[in-house]
Amino acid sequence: xxxxxxxxxxxxxxxxxxxxxxxxxxxxxxxxxxxxxxxxxxxxxxxxxxxxxxxxxxxxxxxxxxxxxxxxxxxxxxxxxxxxxxxxxxxxxxxxxxxxxxxxxxxxxxxxxxxxxxxxxxxxxxxxxxxxxxxxxxxxxxxxxxxxxxxxxxxxxxxxxxxxxxxxxxxxxxxxxxxxxxxxxxxxxxxxxxxxxxxxxxxxxxxxxxxxxxxxxxxxxxxxxxxxxxxxxxxxxxxxxxxxxxxxxxxxxxxxxxxxxxxxxxxxxxxxxxxxxxxxxxxxxxxxxxxxxxx
Length: 295
Hints:
This protein has helices at residues 6-10, 16-24, 32-45, 66-76, 103-113, 124-137, 156-173, 183-190, 193-198, 211-223, 235-245, 249-266, 273-278, 284-294; strands at 55-60, 92-96, 142-146, 177-181, 199-204. It is α/β, with parallel strands linked by helices. A five-stranded parallel sheet has the order 2-3-4-1-5, with helices on both faces. β3 (142-146), α7 and β4 (177-181) form a beta-alpha-beta unit. α5 (103-113) packs parallel to α6. The radius of gyration is 22 Å and the shape is globular. The mean pLDDT is 92.
């Protein structure tokens, strides 16, 4: 059982259904690029307050691990009930940008995350005052906004208005803002020269077929509770996994999850090329082509 790490080895005592449930659960694998961005986030969190705080823009393709990365950071800095103090402390607040660049909906989302009472029909300036007061009260030290490319869903005036909200919040709270999104997010922030200068881009690129990718496969194998070794880093199956996932780590994780479940249900207990064929996985590019063809 040398193909498994110590914590995964214990999972072999579970029933098949329980092992499948564990395989479907989110898992974190710390690869070099993700660790580098986590380190930058830690630096930002300890940055002294100033009127011009540095910010970060985490950029990557869809399904390439951006959200998993920032959620990992948030779980490392959870809210504290602070029973000995005046109230709850929230060092890091992670939220999703509203589907359109709407200031009111943005403040609503923050108030809901903090379980604060509010009236959806209140004026925007009233919600803004409440949000700033509340975020200062809970001791916020970093605001993370995922899916920031949603800004592009509105016209130019609404985009500018929403970007001004980010600028105002950063200035008023004196905390770093971390925006997370696709390459479109980078284009959106470039429309405001001041914001473009304040947001340092941190790229989360797609994987190449190299030794780092083979190490990633070996890490996945150590975390999948299968009784037999799969040797995922072996070139014969690694090339198949790379082709089917096209270098997206989220795609690779879903693919290996489906394959591991099929391996358990078939009784084979390892992943090989035969299992990959049996689950009929369709690569992201082929899915797009099918949608266009049948659309």
